[in-house]
Amino acid sequence: MPPDRLSALLERFRVRTHLFHAGPLCGVDKFEAVPGRGFLHLLRRGEMAVTHHARDGVLRKLAIREPTLLFYPRPLTHTFHNAPVGGSDFVCAAVNFADDGEHPIVRALPPLIVIPLAQVDGLEDALTLLFGEAERARCGQRLLADRLFEVVLVQLLRWMLDHPEECGISQGMMAGLGDPALARALTALHEKPGQPWTLESMAQQAGMSRSAFAVRFKDVVGSTAADYLTDWRLALAKARLRRGDAVKLVADQLGYANASALSRVFAQRVGMSPRAWLATLPAGA
């Protein structure tokens, strides 16, 4: 049975979607970058152009001529240019990732993913329900539309794991989860971060020798397996510290001998102690 490559990620780092537009867009519409917020736009009908700032690392201008999904996983200002009358038909949601820039999926994705709707297997049924909810005002419409957008997002992520190159993903966590052997090891690390992992035990999960595993992991993921495990544990530690968990409790959960051991690794990677890091967060973060 293949591993569940997404659940451990999305259970520990939540994603919420919120419908904010359904219907035509005419003329020029600008979507500003806001910390912690991405966008998921579904073009149902029509044609349009989308522009970005040249410094943002994405194409300055894109022409969209068929039903298309545009996913901005992290804050990036973009502008839609539609005909002044008639325009194009959209359903749009804001995407809010827990822990802002610390969300591992956000960090693993390119700034923009553009895919024709017909290309993503499995979307049709969810899109039919979503578009149906968006078209008619009924009790619970917004709540149901928000949940359906989350279904679309999970199906998109599932498809991306099997088609990384088509999404502009050449290296990183998502590329690793797209590799059948590495996916078994990565999923085990995500599900059991507090286990006393060694290179040998990780390689066993992948069904590979230590040396072959180490080379493939570095080539595909872009870091050593040990560094990846440390980064994953620290991402979890930050999320739990934000929620108010004590450093000692977090250290126990993540496989560190004591609070001092976690604090030492935290300071090496983050540049400050857990307490100092928490003090830098805005109120309510």
Structure commentary:
The chain is an alpha+beta fold. The chain has 2 domains: about 5-165, Sandwich (Jelly Rolls); about 175-280, Arc Repressor Mutant, subunit A (Orthogonal Bundle). Helices cover about 45% and strands about 20% of the residues. Strand 4 and strand 5 form a beta hairpin. The longest helix has 22 residues, at about 140-160. The chain starts with 6 loop residues before the first helix and ends in a 5-residue tail after the last helix.
What labels describe this entry?
alpha+beta; 20% strand; 4-stranded antiparallel sheet; 285 residues; Arc Repressor Mutant, subunit A; Jelly Rolls; 2 domains; 12 helices; 5-stranded antiparallel sheet
Fold topology:
Layout: H1 7-12, E1 15-25, E2 28-31, E3 37-45, E4 48-52, E5 61-64, E6 68-72, E7 78-81, E8 88-97, H2 104-108, E9 113-116, H3 124-135, H4 141-162, H5 173-177, H6 180-191, H7 199-206, H8 210-221, H9 225-242, H10 247-253, H11 259-270, H12 274-280
Antiparallel strand pairs: 1-8, 2-7, 3-6, 3-8, 4-5, 4-7, 6-9
Largest sheet: 5 strands, antiparallel
Number of helices: 12
- Helical fraction: 40-55%
Q: How much β-strand is present in the residues?
A: 15-25%
Domain tally: 2
Mean pLDDT, all residues: 91
Order of helices and strands: HEEEEEEEEHEHHHHHHHHHH
Summarize the structure.
The chain is α+β, with helices and mostly antiparallel strands. The chain folds into 2 domains: 7-167, Jelly Rolls; 173-280, Orthogonal Bundle (Arc Repressor Mutant, subunit A), CATH 1.10.10.60.
